[in-house]
Amino acid sequence: QVQLVESGGGLVQAGGSLRLACAASGRTVSTYTMAWFRQAPGKEREFVTHITRNGGRTSYADSVKGRCTISRDNAKNTVYLQMNSLKPEDTAVYFCASKDPLMIQYVYWGQGTQDTVSS
């Protein structure tokens, strides 16, 4: 079992930055693919970004490309999401997720952290 705990969310003005962290426990996630998703009020959860186990490959949703960077520190069992030039439409609950690279669906999910961007 893997437990994921997000932190770093909060209230920020448009144009500002936030850095989210996702700390894993229960077992090492160094071999797992890690990702961030978000869910805005009244909307479905959507993919934001992912990173492969060694950090060699990442992908981003078009809505955040160029403004967000995912990274991981396998020694700390932690994944980060740096978000810059934030917009009000980035307001959402951000979830961390992980999975074995061979699996299609993300199996482990955190409880989420609220990010609110004011205009």
Could you characterize the architecture of this molecule?
Helices cover 0% and strands 51% of the residues. With 119 residues, the chain is an all-beta fold. 30% of the residues are buried. The model has no long low-confidence stretch (mean pLDDT 95).
Q: Distance N terminus to C terminus?
A: 40 Å
Strand content: over 45%
* Helix-residue proportion: under 10%
Biggest sheet architecture: 7 strands, mixed
Low-confidence stretches: none
**What is the total tally of β strands?**
11
Q: Output the structural class.
A: mainly beta
Mean pLDDT figure: 95
The gyration radius over C-alpha positions equals 13 Å
Summed up, the helix count is: 0
Q: Shape, please?
A: globular
Order of helices and strands: EEEEEEEEEEE
